[in-house]
Amino acid sequence: MQQILWAEIIIKGIAGLGLLIVPLAALAIAGLARPPTGLWPRLVGALSLAIAASIWIGLEYPASRGSIGPAALVPINLLSAAVLVAALVMGTAAPTQRGKVLIAASAILLTVLAFLEIAHA
After folding, report:
1. Helix or strand run (H / E) with residue 102
2. Which of 34, 79, 94, 113 is the most buried if burial means most Cβ atoms within 10 Å?
3. Are 4 and 120 in contact (CB under 8 A)?
4. How many other CB atoms sit within 10 Å of the CB of residue 62?
5. pTM beyond 0.85
């Protein structure tokens, strides 16, 4: 189970750092639509980093209260994947093929992580 949680920390941490530090460039590299300002991508990056930090706290300090564990990560990952799939189905996910592939791969990865967390909980 710890390997799954470490994978979550790495994935969410890297994505969060990229969006927090260079939000518009990260979106351009990923092939996603660029918003007029970097506020919302930065906010998503900060939230991703907060989730990664909370998972890390739960792993490093098992007696801590309030950290995000596998039970909370399941709905986070499933709802995130559902939003990504809905955007793909509605055709508003990304303007480029590269962006659409990235969105689809992210949705699949989030779903796999959620089911792995369900299986190991």
Report:
1. helix 97-120
2. 113
3. yes
4. 9
5. yes
